[in-house]
Amino acid sequence: MAQRQRFLNYPEPLKGPEVPYENERGSNPAISGVFLMIAANLMEWFRLLRELIWNNTGFGSLRKIIPYIEEYEPWFEPQIVPLPEEVDKEPLQNEPAEEDTKPDAAVFYPEAKYYSVEDYRKLYLSGAITPLDVAEALLPLIRRDIQNASEHSIAFFQVRTERVLASAQESTLRYQEGRSLGPLDGVPTAVKDEYDMEGYSTTLGSPNVYADSSTNKTTSWCVQQIEAAGALILGKLSMHEFGLDTTGNNPHYGTPRNPHNSNYYTGGSSSGTAYAVAAGLIPIGLGSDGGGSIRIPSSLCGVYGLKPTHGRLSFRPGPNHCVTCACLGPIAADMSSLAALFSVISTPHSSSPFPPLPSPLKIQLPTPDDAKVLGIPQAWISQATPAIQTLVNTLIRTLVSKHGYTTVPVTIPFLQEGQIAHAMTVLTDAATLLPEYKNLTYANRILLALGRTTPATDYMLAQKLRRLLMQHLAWLWEQHPV
């Protein structure tokens, strides 16, 4: 029987203190337009005003819990690396290799709204369509540089038509000659403007150009992997400026609306990726997540997103600009497509401490005999609005009554303070990277002003609280190992 997985840098399982939830955070006024502009300038000019807003936001609340966290060591980068298991698992059964056959094309047109990676693969193998057909159909929908550009083009920050067509032609030829590169060959995809890609600009959704398309020779590791797999990269996707908020609103390059309801945001900061997948333009795309930037837009757009283990996906050859929180990750139209993409981009970089994952990844659904346990922090849920409580509790009841789950009550201390600690950490990290900010949006100038206000002592308190929370979660998983 295999022993429990071991990890490098795993937190010591240690129960946190039992404390009641408190929500004493102040409410800063909601402002827009000229008032937002005035507020941003005033906060940059007057430190006293910055400190007032900083305290009213609740950033000073960590000082109240010093007696609980003072003995904890700060934890800055939460990278937990799995180690080889001490007892090998039973070997997986070999599956027959996929054949480049050309079966009847008619059986492969999907009835669902979205084409998956598997759908494209079958259509290409059958000869019903080619990657070049797909490229020629999609380019008029996503290009900004044509007359009467479609609404979909807002999600695409930059498209290099010649590169896309050349890639599609190469993939088409590979299929015609029976030498396709695998499941992603010819599958349309795109990448968030946080990744570097040779021949494309990198702006991170801002007016600043960090890599110019005419001179950029750098390609991020994850993009290299999907290129090597033959994926048809359509271009770079829009994002919230510097990923500093979760709406997806971008006054510089345009804001993609939620494809299910144009009166709503997609969520952010991986707004373009979520839009392109949810609109059915691509089945897979690359995003990033430091505080919900994959999970929030995936949720709001009704698609699948994954914030992986911290450090699993490499930022190389560039740096991780928010190494305390940020991860790269996939967004997809369905779970199988997400697994197919993650199988490729999780290939470890030479500098990575992570071992390779099994490839291709397989989705293992729980069997009726598997224990399925939900930990329910009811005291925390009860602080939500009645509508949200109804949604959450209805989901829990459905999982229990129809899917065989059981529930156990759990408590997690300092959840409100944990939110504060996370926001403080992200904004302080961002403030150290953006000393020049006059050309940024006024909303982000206010956030960066708050980041510059954080004392080093409070930043350290946030990292001490991170360790407390990680140790408590490790303790919970020890108590409820399933």
TrEMBL record:
Chain ranges of the Amidase domain: 145-440
PROSITE patterns: AMIDASES
Signal peptide: none
Pfam families: Amidase
Xref: InterPro entries: Amidase (IPR000120), Amidase_CS (IPR020556), Amidase_dom (IPR023631), AS_sf (IPR036928)
Gene3D superfamilies listed in its UniProt record: Amidase signature (AS) domain
Record SUPFAM superfamilies: Amidase signature (AS) enzymes
Similarity field: Belongs to the amidase family.
Name of the protein: Amidase domain-containing protein
Protein source organism: Podospora pseudoanserina
